[in-house]
Amino acid sequence: MDKFVIRGGNPLLGTIRVSGAKNAALPAMAAAILTDEPVILENIPDVRDIQTERNLLVSMGAEVELGYGRAHHRTTISCKNLLNPEAAYELVKTMRASTLVLGPLVARMKRARVSLPGGCAIGARPIDLHIKGLEKLGAIIAQEHGYIEARAERLQGGHIIFDKITVTGTEDLMMAATLAEGETLMENCAREPEVSDLAALLNKMGARIEGAGTSAIRIQGVDKLRGARYRIIPDRIEAGTFVIAGALTGGDLIVSNCEPRHLGALLQKLDECGVKTKTNGDSVRVMGDNPLMAADISTEEYPGFPTDMQAQYMALATQAEGSSVVTENIFENRFMHAYELVRMGANVKVEGSRAVVRGRSPLSGAAVQCSDLRASASLVLAALVAEGETIIDRVYHVDRGYERIEEKLRGVGAQIRRIGEILPRKTVAPLATA
Ligand code: EPZ
Question: Mutate which of 98, 134, 148, 168 to test ligand 1's pocket (most atoms within 8 Å of Cβ)?
Fold first, then answer.
């Protein structure tokens, strides 16, 4: 398993480019199931979760071209010959977002067999709201052997009020409703930019969706959707991670190719912490020359402070003067990074859904381990400001959602390198003497 070796202390200076949003690309790729014509998506990030989604679609019989470099991070997906409407456990267990194929499969193929995702490091991650919504649209659902089996001759428009705000639940059912007979009204929907981005793609494919980005979404079902070409929005969480990196290292960093409008809650909070930022079109400049001040956060659905930025903010809070209370309202176990930060010298006390961070605590490099995607990003940030060398293990977690993060960070002055498995000295055969 690859590791990162990071030597802290360098301020990040220059321009760092943001990739396309993983959490917009994943539902957009699933949307290709809804048509027998090719769907071309651009600005696709080169991250592991996209490869997983590609493998999932191919396992169903889709043709998926996925090109980077000169291919401009583009994928072309053709679901003309979908033979196997199934998302197998082996794939779903590695990426919960695989459940995004459930709604499209029932809508297009009249049936779906999708493994229940099971929990992950940050929580139970149920999909009961996806299932209840599909039943509201007339699907017959059975659960057995760890799988959801869903069937519908044709889904019928209905009225769905989500018990809880769910991002992929909103996306899954919005996709299902595009091919239902009649009108669907969904209320208490997620308002994340990724939901709006998916609706824009679906409408380009011939769907009739209104209200995406608000808590009430209305969908007029149509008989068929066509192919489309669409460019995915920038990744607001990657952008936010880099903005924090610039602040934390006392740098002067331009985070480019992002959408500052999607960063409102974070930029407002950083202003409270004394961090100077300046937005300009598709970039944010962050200047970390002021001392950091403590400020509380409470994670909320968009447009509130994003849960996906909580771990990264905690790393910043360890360097702020004073106590910051971090409250996690979305997931039940999203403080795994706190215990690794403490091993680096941070002062963090976790009490249920709250963590109290007392700063400023000088951090020292240590051997640490990743547990989930955003916790891993938090450890990278801490290592950038820690005294000495940090070795971060299991960086495949980082690779799930950040495209070549070590190259991007090195490009703005970080001392970071990726190493393969470190073999204990004794197992390495001695060099033959000349
Ligand atoms: C999406 O996950 C994101 N993933 C997550 O990003 C993000 O943390 C999360 O939204 C919250 O913003 C993708 O978009 C692929 P939810 P999702 O359904 O949709 C409960 C990352 O780091 N819930 O909005 O799975 C759930 O347990 C990932 O990129 C139910 O109870 O999250 C949670 O407490 C991590 N029943 C809350 O709702 C359901 O049927 C919000 O979950 C569905 C969800």
Answer: 168
DSSP state of 28: H
Cα of 168 from ligand 1 centre, angstroms: 6
Question: 117: pLDDT confidence band, cut at 50, 70 and 90?
Answer: confident
User: Does residue 313 sit in helix, strand or coil?
Assistant: helix
Would you call 54 helix, strand, or coil by DSSP?
helix
Neighbouring C-beta atoms of residue 375, cutoff 10 Å: 27
Rg of the chain taking only CA atoms, in angstroms:
22
* Burial of residue 255, with CB atoms counted within 10 A of its CB: 0-12 exposed, 13-18 middle, 19 or more buried: buried
398/343 Cα distance (integer angstroms): 20
Q: Is 120 a residue of the active site?
A: yes
pLDDT digits (tens, 9 = 90+) for 413-431: 999 999 986 555 554 455 5
| Residue 169 Cβ contacting ligand 1 at under 6 Å | yes
Give, as one character, the DSSP assignment of residue 400. Answer: T
d(CA 401, CA 391): 20
DSSP 340-390: HHHHTT-EEEEETTEEEEEE----B--EEE--SHHHHHHHHHHHHHSBSEE
pLDDT of residue 181: 98
Give the distance between the most distant pair of CA atoms in the chain: 80
| CB 187 within 8 Å of CB 115 | no
- Annotated catalytic residue: which of 120, 189, 258, 273? 120
User: Could you tell me the distance, in angstroms and rounded to a whole number, from the CA of residue 251 to the centre of ligand 1?
Assistant: 33
Report pTM.
0.95
Whether the link from the prior residue into 303 is cis, omega within 30° of 0, is yes
**How many residues make up the chain in this entry?**
434
How far, in Å, are 142, 215, 363, 375 from residue 100 at the CA level?
Answer: 18, 19, 40, 23
Q: What integer pLDDT is reported at residue 123 of this predicted model?
A: 85
Cα dihedral sign for 330, 238, 386, 120? positive
Query: Residue 72 corresponds to which tokens in the numbers above?
Result: 């401009």
Burial of 419 (0-12, 13-18, 19+ CB in 10 A): exposed
List of domains in the chain: 3-19+234-419 (3.65.10.10), 22-219 (3.65.10.10)
Q: How far is CA 102 from the centre of its chain?
A: 19
Count of alpha carbons within 13 angstroms of residue 155, beta-carbon side:
38
Q: Report the amino acid identity of residue 231.
A: R
